[in-house]
Design a protein that fits this description.
Layout (H helix, E strand, L loop, with lengths): L1 H28 L10 H11 L6 E5 L6 E3 L4 E5 H5 L3 H19 L2 H29 L4 H41 L8 H37 L1
Parallel strand pairs: 1-3
Antiparallel strand pairs: 2-3
Helix pairs in contact: 1-7, 2-4, 4-6, 4-7, 5-6, 6-7
The chain binds zinc ion (ZN).
């Protein structure tokens, strides 16, 4: 029970904290306009142009913080407020996604590894919940233990995926911060709002990794405990 509290409860609280932090950072900095007034769309286009990328289309997608880069379709998707807006948050997010496009173009190794892991991770994510629930419900039986082991394998894949996601996200933000200043999109004294937004976003990826790791260790402890 104590281990469950530590391995599941603490990461869950950390996750909630990270979620509230990004929401607060975004809501604050989406209201802070940039001096130059160029939009997220223009910033993403400028960052990619400076890296010699001309075959990635930038599209607007519905929702808030739904921004992402799709390496398969070569499409950079920005949510409405980040696409049209010229806030510090919008420019930070737009440049971050452009950072992913640059990683793709230069063949950044961690991104390649992450992309290779996507299919296996999707299967693992689908299988892990079923396996773990079945494992707990049929605890003690051979089938139950087999399900728990299957759950542990699936969680290991998810943990590794979350782990390689970290350098990919940190690197995209580092590229974004450097490019926004270098290209004169933002002045150095405006970077506080960008840093706050991107660092809070990065924390959610750390939280996702910690949560997956906690779940894996919990299952492993149960499996080891049962064999004694
Ligand atoms: Zn990202």
């Amino acid at each position: 029970m104590l281990w469950m509290l530590i391995l599941i409860g603490v990461p869950m609280l950390f996750g909630l904290y990270a979620q509230s932090k990004i929401r607060r950072a975004y809501e604050k900095n989406v209201r802070r306009g940039s001096r130059g007034g160029i939009t997220g769309y223009e910033a993403a286009a400028a960052v990619m142009r400076s890296a010699g990328i001309s075959d990635v289309e930038i599209v607007q997608v519905p929702g808030q913080l739904t921004d992402h880069y799709d390496p398969i379709k070569k499409r950079l998707a920005l949510s409405e407020m980040n696409y049209r807006g010229s806030s510090l948050a919008a420019l930070g997010v737009a440049a971050h996604e452009a950072g992913h496009a640059i990683q793709h173009k230069v063949g950044y190794s961690m991104m390649t590894v992450r992309q290779t892991m996507v299919p296996a991770t999707q299967i693992a994510a689908g299988a892990s919940n079923f396996a773990i629930i079945a494992g707990f419900l049929l605890a003690g039986s051979l089938f139950g233990n087999t399900m728990l082991m299957l759950g542990a394998v699936a969680l290991t894949i998810i943990v590794l995926f979350q782990l390689v996601t970290l350098p990919v996200e940190f690197d995209a933000s580092a590229r974004a911060k450097a490019q926004l200043v270098e290209l004169g999109i933002l002045d150095r004294d405006e970077m506080g709002g960008v840093n706050e937004t991107l660092d809070a976003a990065a924390l959610t990826y750390v939280a996702a990794f910690v949560a997956a790791l906690g779940s894996l260790l919990h299952i492993l402890m149960i499996l080891v405990g049962r064999r004694d």
